[in-house]
Write a structure and sequence with these properties.
InterPro entries: Glyco_trans_2-like, Glycosyltransferase_2, Nucleotide-diphossugar_trans
Structural class: alpha/beta
Keywords: Glycosyltransferase, Membrane, Transferase, Transmembrane, Transmembrane helix
GO molecular function: glycosyltransferase activity
CATH class of the largest domain: Alpha Beta
Strand order of the largest sheet: 3-2-1-4-6-5-7
EC number: 2.4.-.-
CATH superfamily of the largest domain: Spore Coat Polysaccharide Biosynthesis Protein SpsA, Chain A
Strand content: 5-15%
Number of domains: 2
Number of helices: 10
Bound molecules: uridine-5'-diphosphate, magnesium ion
CATH architecture of the largest domain: Alpha-Beta Complex
Membrane topology: Multi-pass membrane protein
Length: 313
């Protein structure tokens, strides 16, 4: 049997917490009875600097319910950081941790399947959404577009997987080696590379409270995801520079022909040619500088360069 931790970041979730605790307690107890989780298993609620009564509620549930643990962050640091705080605490206390949202939008009836796959030897189990019917058309299109863009830019992300996943102790230890501050967990986890599998589920609607991810946060999250995992936008500048420089050659020919046909104002040819050529060269130079910045950026992250999975002696 293994110690299983559920890790739930909570930001202003007083409206959903009582129900969440009730449903998860029932689920965890049934997993304990069926031998999937041992008696040290817990639900770890991470209060991400909420402004409402979230922490008071967590304290109250902790005093009444031995399965509830709590972690209080001093400030609101955002979902990803709150999640990381919870996972890094679980790393020392549990054999595996499952992260999920406090609003129970992620279907909790599949929790046993995660642990089953863990016991079968997987280090990471991704929860993947079957379909996105409960989302608005806008959220669905932007979210799916985002996964596609990430893929094109060369970052490895699991399609339609958010942060509903199980990680083993060893995977959490690997995660702790990634020191980057611009945290985009769903991009880092696939880099860990241990054996992984998928569990499929339908996402429900939030049953109380409102989304803490308005469009502005969604956009900045997407930007973080792209700029934390890809230097391709920098390469794009260099390519654009080459393209503009090539166009300038065509422009040069056109300007020269116009000049010799005599239908130009004096001085026009020289100005037009230099604008295009210089523009192209400048952009190309920016791209070259960008290449170096891209290298610095990768060095600064100091990500682990390899991970040994097995060693036969
Ligand atoms: N959350 C958090 N800190 C924040 C914003 C959100 O810990 O600054 C938590 C929130 O309490 C919830 C989870 O992150 O448990 C997902 O947020 P939400 O349900 O609002 O996002 P959505 O499901 O609408 O994408
Ligand atoms: Mg939600």
């Amino acid at each position: 049997m293994s110690t299983v931790y559920f890790v739930l970041p909570c930001y202003n979730e007083e409206a959903v917490l009582p129900e969440t605790v009730k449903e998860l307690t029932a689920q965890l107890q049934s997993m304990m009875q069926s031998g999937l989780a041992d008696e040290n298993s817990r639900m770890l609620f991470v209060d991400d600097g909420s402004k409402d009564r979230t922490w008071e509620l967590i304290e109250k549930f902790h005093s009444e319910n031995p399965l509830v643990s709590g972690l209080k962050l001093a400030h609101n640091r955002g979902h990803q950081n709150a999640l990381l705080a919870g996972l890094m605490t679980a790393k020392d206390e549990a054999d595996c941790a499952i992260s999920l949202d406090a609003d129970l939008q992620d279907d909790i009836s599949i929790l046993p399947q995660f642990v089953q796959k863990f016991q079968d030897g997987c280090d990471v189990v991704y929860g993947v959404r079957n379909k996105r019917e409960t989302d608005t058309w806008f959220k669905r299109t932007t979210a799916e577009g985002f996964y596609k863009v990430m893929e094109k830019l060369g970052a490895e992300v699991v399609y339609n997987h958010a942060d509903y996943r199980l990680m083993s102790k060893r995977a959490l230890e690997a995660l702790s080696e990634y020191k980057e501050v611009n945290l985009f967990l769903r991009g880092i986890v696939p880099l860990i590379g241990y054996r992984s599998d998928y569990v499929y589920y339908d996402r429900h609607e939030r049953f109380a409270g409102e989304s803490k991810y308005p469009l502005k946060k969604m956009l900045s999250f997407a930007m973080d995801g792209i700029t934390s995992f890809s230097v391709k936008p920098l390469k794009l500048i260099a390519n654009l520079g080459i393209f503009v420089a090539l166009i300038s050659v065509v422009g040069l020919l056109y300007a020269l022909i116009s000049h010799f046909m005599g239908n130009t104002v004096a001085g026009w040819t020289a100005i037009v040619c230099s604008i295009w050529l210089l523009g192209g060269i400048q952009m190309l130079c920016l791209g070259i500088v960008g290449e170096y910045i891209g290298k610095i950026y990768n060095e600064v992250k100091a990500r682990p360069r390899f991970r040994i999975e097995k060693h036969l002696k």
